[in-house]
Amino acid sequence: ETGVTQTPRHLVMGMTNKKSLKCEQHLGHNAMYWYKQSAKKPLELMFVYSLEERVENNSVPSRFSPECPNSSHLFLHLHTLQPEDSALYLCASSRGLGETQYFGPGTRLLVL
Amino acid sequence: KNEVEQSPQNLTAQEGEFITINCSYSVGISALHWLQQHPGGGIVSLFMLSSGKKKHGRLIATINIQEKHSSLHITASHPRDSAVYICAVSASTGNQFYFGTGTSLTVIP
């Protein structure tokens, strides 16, 4: 148990669906991250928030939309995804940018 | 070419063996991280280091900043060490993290 929770743990959605992934950290951290992990590929950093401000957006398609309403919660809103977006989506938090990250268990997403 | 390269990609060892996983990187860094990912996806941060050596139980991590190289050692390996070990670096400029593709370790009883 790392202190970072993610829901749902598994999600199957059609290409026309809208869904949201939720991440919550109970560590008092100031930075939160979304990562995508596809099979046989390195972890890809998608978004970084520090003190609820987005500080990094790595050319992620607009069908992924992050939201950070407060320092404990991070959402990833999904809309009209493609089958190639099927992956494990991991959330992490750290005390500050560049510091040790604590990862959630991930949401395994399948887009049909 | 990936900014972080790990070797080997796959490693099988007998229980009790000494294991070394290597990581090389090509960017300026503020810190290097070793992560452990178990089947099912959960990732645990093992070490964050910017110089020298750190030890935690049977795990030892070293880094050589001049050579841009780090190693993760596992002494007296055990089947429960079976996991994917990922090397990651925090770039010294910007907020980028770069990840290696991971080393899949299987320790056989």
What report would you give on this structure?
- The complex is a heterodimer of chains A (112) and B (109).
- The mean pLDDT of chain A is 91.
- Chain A has no helices and eleven strands.
- The radius of gyration of chain A is 13 Å and the shape is globular.
- Chain A has strands at residues 4-7, 10-13, 18-25, 31-37, 44-50, 53-57, 64-70, 73-79, 87-94, 101-103, 107-111.
- In chain A, the strands form two sheets. In chain A, strands 2, 4, 5, 6, 9, 10 and 11 form a seven-stranded mixed sheet that branches. In chain A, strands 1-3-8-7 form a four-stranded antiparallel sheet, with no helix packed on it.
- In chain A, 34% of the residues are buried.
- Chain A has 112 residues and is mainly β.
- Chain B has no helices and eleven strands.
- Chain B has strands spanning 4-7, 10-14, 19-25, 29-37, 43-49, 52-56, 59-64, 69-74, 83-91, 97-99, 103-108.
- The model of chain B has no long low-confidence stretch (mean pLDDT 92).
- The chains are: A mainly beta (112), B mainly beta (109).
- The A-B interface holds A 2, 33, 37, 40-45, 48, 50, 55-56, 88, 90, 92, 97-103, 105-106, 108 and B 2, 4, 30-31, 33, 35, 40-45, 48, 86, 88, 90, 94-102.
Computed CA radius of gyration of chain B, to the nearest angstrom: 13 Å
What distance lies between the first and last C-alpha atoms of chain B, to the nearest angstrom? Answer: 36 Å
Overall geometry of chain A: globular
**Rg of chain A, please?**
13 Å
Summarize the biggest pleated sheet of chain B: 6 strands, mixed
Number of helices of chain A: 0
List the uncertain runs of chain B: none
Distance, first to last CA of chain A: 31 Å
Overall strand count of chain A? 11
